[in-house]
Structures are given as C-alpha cells and as structure tokens.
Amino acid sequence: MTDTGKKKLRILLGVWMLGLGALGGMYVLVLKPQQESLQAVQRQADEEEQKRQELRLASMPTSREKRRQQMESLDQQRMELVGEFTDSSGITFAVNELVRQHNLKNFTSSTVKCGGEAEYEKCQYLTEQRIRISFQADFIDFVKFVNVLERSRPVIFVDRFTAERDEENPAEVQADMELAGFGRKKTADNQAPEIRK
C-alpha cells in the first residue's frame, strides 16, 4: 500500500471514529435519557392502570360483599381477643364467673399493677388488665379450670402460674396464677369507645 493509500485509510478510519463517537454521544446525551423518561412514564401509566382496575373492582357488588365479610371476620376476631372490661374489675368479674362453674376452694383474686399501658401507648383503644388469683382444687377440677381459661372468649391469657400439691391434702392442688386480658381503653371523657356492630 502506498503512502496516499495509507493516508486515505487513516482519514477514513478517523471519519468513522468521529461518526461512531458522535453516535455514541448522541445515544448517551439524547436517546438514553429519552428511554429512561419513557420507562418512567410507562411505569406511572401502569401504576395508574392498576389503581383504576382496583377502583373498578372495589365498586363491584361482589367486592363490596367480600370487604363486608372481611370486616365481619376482623370484628369477630377482635371480639374474641378484646373484652368489654375497661378496668381490672371487668377481668375479675369474668374470671369469677368461670370460678363459679368449677369446684374451686379458697379462691382469692387481686389486681396486679403493671406498667402495661406504657407498652401500648400507640394503641388508642386497647388496654391490658391483669389479676392474680389463688385457689385450691382437686387435680381434675384444676385441669378443667385451666382448659376453660384457654377456651374463654374474650381470651384470658395465663401469663404465669404455679401449681403445687397441697401438703395437708395430697389429692388437691394449690394454684397461683397471673392472668391478663385486653379490654377497651377509656377515652378522655371516661367512656370506652363503642364497639362497631
């Protein structure tokens, strides 16, 4: 190849390199931002379409019925967990009703003061009530009572308990329990919030 041929080849390669560089710069400066902008607009359009679909489905009678059933289910679960009591006398009364149904002797109960409300400061309508109970019963009645506590509605939690054989009567159990339950918190006007029916 001659010098003029080499010179033409270098010029041709230089022109091609400049052209490719210009195309690359145009892609980076113009096309890539356009592509990213197009993708962002597409994502936004997809989100808007999804919201529109959700609103359309929410307005359908079957969706309203499904939401109503979900609300009823949540209310039922809440009623199983949260009692009507707004102070410790409510849980004491609920436990006393259970005690009357069983053959428990020497039953005593006392309120347990705990810093429980501080733990639930973000709960506007929920409070924890605790009591401590002591009683004597034969083993079968003790087991029945614990079983009833486990199945009680609203739920009464057995937080701690000890059970020892009575030294005077080995067939009986001396039990001490700390029970907890959730109730509705009183508001500023000293009223518990109404339960939704």
Question: Can you characterise this structure?
Answer:
With 197 residues, this protein is of the alpha+beta class. The chain has two domains: 59 residues; 102 residues, Alpha-Beta Plaits (2-Layer Sandwich). The protein contains five helices and five strands. Strands 1, 2, 3, 4 and 5 form a five-stranded mixed sheet that branches. The protein is elongated, with a radius of gyration of 37 Å.
What's the structural blueprint in terms of helices and strands?
Elements: H1 3-58, H2 61-81, E1 82-83, H3 88-100, E2 105-111, H4 116-119, E3 126-138, H5 139-151, E4 156-165, E5 172-184
Parallel strand pairs: 1-5
Antiparallel strand pairs: 2-3, 3-5, 4-5
What coarse outline follows from CA principal-axis ratios?
A: elongated
Poorly predicted residue ranges: none
Question: What series of H and E elements makes up the topology?
Answer: HHEHEHEHEE
* Number of alpha- plus pi-helical segments: 5
Average pLDDT for all residues: 80
* Alpha-beta content class: alpha+beta
* Structure summary, number of beta strands: 5
Task: From the structure above, extract its key features.
Alpha-Beta Plaits, 197 residues, 5-stranded mixed beta sheet, elongated
Brief digest:
The chain has helices at residues 3-58, 61-81, 88-100, 116-119, 139-151, and strands at residues 82-83, 105-111, 126-138, 156-165, 172-184.
